[in-house]
């Protein structure tokens, strides 16, 4: 079985463009956006690395550390970063794992033989401060990730944790949220004094401040 939501993200020690890291120690107390790439010096990956760097302030506001991975060396990563900074008009400041032996890619199930025997697909892991995997997404090699969705789901997860709510389809920050069916009407009235709308006994909307 591969890694699933709710699993503890496996720890690893490895070289990155920011030196060697112990993943659990490096990420302690923060959320993590951990994402893999097929290879350095490839076009879609270049735009994704650049977009992650461009959104560094947005990730920081959410207490999220970004960590990239590609099955190339630190030297190759550093050369590629120069191209990313130039072509994407940004400054890559987050570490990129040098997984040349594919150990981490194998640990996290990032190698999909139907796509490639040697290159990682575009995997996404959102990991919380307790090292628990909260979301996984996998994109094919030829399709870049939707970073609006990545930020949206982080907002939804953090809102759910803070207020004990769920988020409906297409939810955005500021939108109504859902009171879980496990919360009784009596408890809901205490927990959400701002009030709520009952559409069905199992479908109750309320508002919270993110």
From TrEMBL:
<dbReference type="InterPro" id="IPR050217">
    <property type="entry name" value="Peroxiredoxin"/>
</dbReference>
<comment type="similarity">
    <text>Belongs to the peroxiredoxin family. AhpC/Prx1 subfamily.</text>
</comment>
<feature type="active site" description="Cysteine sulfenic acid (-SOH) intermediate; for peroxidase activity">
    <location>
        <position position="45"/>
    </location>
</feature>
<dbReference type="Pfam" id="PF00578">
    <property type="entry name" value="AhpC-TSA"/>
</dbReference>
<dbReference type="GO" id="GO:0005829">
    <property type="term" value="C:cytosol"/>
</dbReference>
<protein>
    <recommendedName>
        <fullName>Alkyl hydroperoxide reductase C</fullName>
        <ecNumber>1.11.1.26</ecNumber>
    </recommendedName>
</protein>
<comment type="subunit">
    <text>Homodimer; disulfide-linked, upon oxidation. 5 homodimers assemble to form a ring-like decamer.</text>
</comment>
<dbReference type="InterPro" id="IPR013766">
    <property type="entry name" value="Thioredoxin_domain"/>
</dbReference>
<dbReference type="GO" id="GO:0042744">
    <property type="term" value="P:hydrogen peroxide catabolic process"/>
</dbReference>
<keyword id="KW-0676">Redox-active center</keyword>
<comment type="similarity">
    <text>Belongs to the peroxiredoxin family. Prx6 subfamily.</text>
</comment>
<keyword id="KW-0560">Oxidoreductase</keyword>
<dbReference type="Pfam" id="PF10417">
    <property type="entry name" value="1-cysPrx_C"/>
</dbReference>
<dbReference type="GO" id="GO:0045454">
    <property type="term" value="P:cell redox homeostasis"/>
</dbReference>
<dbReference type="InterPro" id="IPR045020">
    <property type="entry name" value="PRX_1cys"/>
</dbReference>
<keyword id="KW-0049">Antioxidant</keyword>
<dbReference type="GO" id="GO:0006979">
    <property type="term" value="P:response to oxidative stress"/>
</dbReference>
<dbReference type="InterPro" id="IPR019479">
    <property type="entry name" value="Peroxiredoxin_C"/>
</dbReference>
<dbReference type="InterPro" id="IPR000866">
    <property type="entry name" value="AhpC/TSA"/>
</dbReference>
<dbReference type="GO" id="GO:0033554">
    <property type="term" value="P:cellular response to stress"/>
</dbReference>
<dbReference type="GO" id="GO:0008379">
    <property type="term" value="F:thioredoxin peroxidase activity"/>
</dbReference>
<dbReference type="InterPro" id="IPR024706">
    <property type="entry name" value="Peroxiredoxin_AhpC-typ"/>
</dbReference>
<keyword id="KW-0575">Peroxidase</keyword>
<dbReference type="InterPro" id="IPR036249">
    <property type="entry name" value="Thioredoxin-like_sf"/>
</dbReference>
<dbReference type="GO" id="GO:0102039">
    <property type="term" value="F:NADH-dependent peroxiredoxin activity"/>
</dbReference>
<feature type="domain" description="Thioredoxin">
    <location>
        <begin position="3"/>
        <end position="159"/>
    </location>
</feature>
């Amino acid at each position: 079985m591969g890694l699933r939501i709710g699993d503890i993200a496996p720890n690893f020690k490895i070289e990155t463009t920011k030196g060697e890291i112990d993943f659990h120690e490096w990420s302690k107390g923060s959320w993590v956006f951990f994402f893999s790439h097929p290879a350095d010096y490839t076009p879609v990956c270049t735009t994704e690395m650049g977009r992650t760097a461009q959104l560094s302030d947005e990730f920081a506001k959410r207490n999220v550390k970004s960590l990239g991975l590609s099955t190339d060396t630190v030297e190759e990563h550093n050369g590629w970063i120069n191209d990313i900074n130039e072509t994407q008009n940004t400054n890559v400041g987050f570490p990129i794992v040098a997984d040349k032996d594919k150990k981490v890619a194998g640990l996290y199930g990032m190698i999909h033989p139907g796509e490639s025997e040697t290159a990682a697909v575009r995997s996404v892991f959102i990991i919380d401060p307790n090292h628990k995997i909260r979301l996984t997404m996998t994109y094919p090699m030829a399709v870049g990730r939707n970073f609006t969705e990545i930020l949206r789901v982080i907002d939804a997860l953090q809102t759910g944790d803070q207020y004990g709510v769920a988020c409906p389809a297409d939810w955005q920050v500021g939108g109504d949220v859902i009171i879980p069916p496990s919360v009784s009407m009596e408890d809901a009235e205490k927990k959400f004094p701002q009030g709520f709308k009952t559409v069905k006994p199992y479908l109750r909307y309320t508002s919270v401040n993110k």
